[in-house]
Amino acid sequence: MRLVLVEWVDSSRADGWHRDPPDAELSHIRSVGWVTAESAEGLTLAGHIGTETNPQRCGEMTIPKVAILSVQE
User: How many angstroms separate the CA atoms of 35 and 2, rounded?
Assistant: First the structure.
C-alpha cells in the first residue's frame, strides 16, 4: 500500500447564530494515510493498518477526487 499526504478542500460551517454574512471560505485539509482503494470518484485512506499479509485496517476515509488539490507519496 502507498503511504501518501493528501491536500484537499472541505466544506466549513459556523456554530450558533450569526449576523454577518458567511465568508464562503473552504477548509484546507492535510491528511496522511495508506491508500486502501481508489476509483475515478474517490481516494480512500486508512490511518492504521496491520502488518500481516492481508492487513486489517482502521480509520478509513474516502476523499472525493474533485476535492483533492495534491497527492504526495
Answer: 5
